[in-house]
Amino acid sequence: MNNTQISKTINWGIIGLGNIAHKFATDLLTIEGAKLYAVASRNQDKAHAFADKYLAVTAFDSYEALAKDKNIDAVYIATPHALHMENTLLCLKQGIAVLCEKPFAMNYNEVSKMIATAKANNVLLMEALWTYFLPHYQYVLKALEDKIFGDVIKLEADFGFYRAFDNSSRLFNKSLGGGSLLDIGIYPIFAAISTLGMPKNIEAKAGYFKNGADSSCDMLFEYDNNAKAYLKSTLVEDTGTEAIFYCERGTIKINSMFHMPTTVTLIPKNGTPETLDFGYNTIGYNYEAIHFNELLRQEKTESNVMTFAFSEQLIKTLDHVRSLINLEY
């Protein structure tokens, strides 16, 4: 991509047009200097309807056709987990920058291939873990780094909601990476690794649906400094979906739905709690997209926030937990 192109509006494509793609496209409309140029679905009618709704120029009935469109600068991949590597490699080999929805892929081997291909083709690649870019989460990262309440002693992070079992749903389809761990367990794990780093020891236990997909997973991460992280994902009950950092002199609580735009409550041990509102007026996907656009304009091939090393740590941890609970895809 030459400098003339990157000074212009960045043309986006979206592969896979499910619920999360609608959210991403909604927020893309709010970003200056970015345009939804093309979308692709295996269903042409679905592609046209999506394109009409979000003002895309072109609608394709195959992912391959989108990847060959020379007008596209960046692609957001929102297909089921099991297709992430295949779809990412398709675009990278065409020289198109890729923002791939989390989890990056099914396992470390797949992630390694994606990163190696991005490097070989000198193309930008990033895992779309949107939470990392949200202002409230960036605030908490800074507060913990600055030790406003001292060191973290304990983290409790959960993500749970009840869904009636449906064997035809992607959420429960083991072959597509369905189940609680890869779909939502990644968020509590992300909260632990992004704040406390890699644990020295992990314990985990899981429950299962009748088709072998995990219904819930309880994890304990232990750290060298004696800090502990109690993490949980579940598809069989509604939970608070909070991330609570218990520190030496107080508590930092990311309130319900901690992974998406929300509030943060600071609770000093001997003081008055204070809840911070970050004034969100979008769904929240615009923050990662803006970051990605800037990387593209600066001709970067790797994010300085969601680094390859961090994505590798995340998927290695997911692989480790899967080995502990005997979950194989």
Describe the structure using short key phrases.
329 residues, alpha/beta, Rossmann fold, Dihydrodipicolinate Reductase, domain 2, 2 domains, eight-stranded mixed sheet, six-stranded parallel sheet, 10 helices, 14 strands, 33% helix, globular, disordered N terminus
What is the CATH architecture assignment of the largest domain? 2-Layer Sandwich
Shape: globular
Strand order of the largest sheet: 8-9-10-7-11-12-13-14
Taking all residues together, what is the mean pLDDT? 96
Which stretches of 5+ consecutive residues score pLDDT under 50?
1-6
Any idea what the radius of gyration is? 20 Å
In what range is the share of β-strand residues?
15-25%
Tell me the CATH superfamily of the largest domain. Answer: Dihydrodipicolinate Reductase, domain 2
Number of helices: 10
Terminal CA distance: 37 Å
For this structure, the CATH topology of the largest domain is Dihydrodipicolinate Reductase, domain 2
* Main pleated-sheet profile: 8 strands, mixed
In short:
Belongs to the Gfo/Idh/MocA family. The protein is an alpha/beta fold and 329 residues long. Helices cover 33% and strands 24% of the residues.
